[in-house]
Amino acid sequence: QVQLVESGGGLVQPGGSLRITCAASGSIFSIDAMGWYRQAPGKQREFVARITSVDSTYFADSVKGRFAISRDNAKNTVYLQMNSLKPEDTAVYYCNAIIQTIGTMIHLNYWGQGTQVTVSS
């Protein structure tokens, strides 16, 4: 029905930058908020950033001023630009989107499979 596919993860040195992407596909009627969460080894999944359908953005305190989120509605895609990366940003980053599928009035929460971001020298 609906798939979220992340890409762009990898290994980056401290202080470096990385952009990860999430593309939604399938029987999509509309997409509300899109966002990113992350989960480091041995820790719970935590909120990173969100962008609404009217481009309001929200960030976790730990990434404010370093990360930026944007979306391309024509491509059903959300981006996370990560700058000034720190080792503590190392985690699997998961895309999240609230999507109304074609033929329904229901808005459901969807998750991607995750992409690994490792910040290390």
| Structural class based on helices, strands and sheet pairing | mainly beta
Please write the string of helix (H) and strand (E) elements.
Answer: EEEEEEEEEEE
Number of helix segments?
0
Q: Taking all residues together, what is the mean pLDDT?
A: 97
Largest sheet: 7 strands, mixed
Give start-end ranges of low-pLDDT stretches.
none
Beta-strand portion reads over 45%
Report the principal-axis shape: elongated
Radius of gyration: 14 Å
Structure description:
The chain is mainly beta. It has no helices and eleven strands. Strands 2, 4, 5, 6, 9, 10 and 11 form a seven-stranded mixed beta sheet that branches. Strand 4 and strand 5 form a beta hairpin. It starts with a strand and ends with a strand. The mean pLDDT is 97.
Pick out its properties.
121 residues, mainly beta, seven-stranded mixed β-sheet
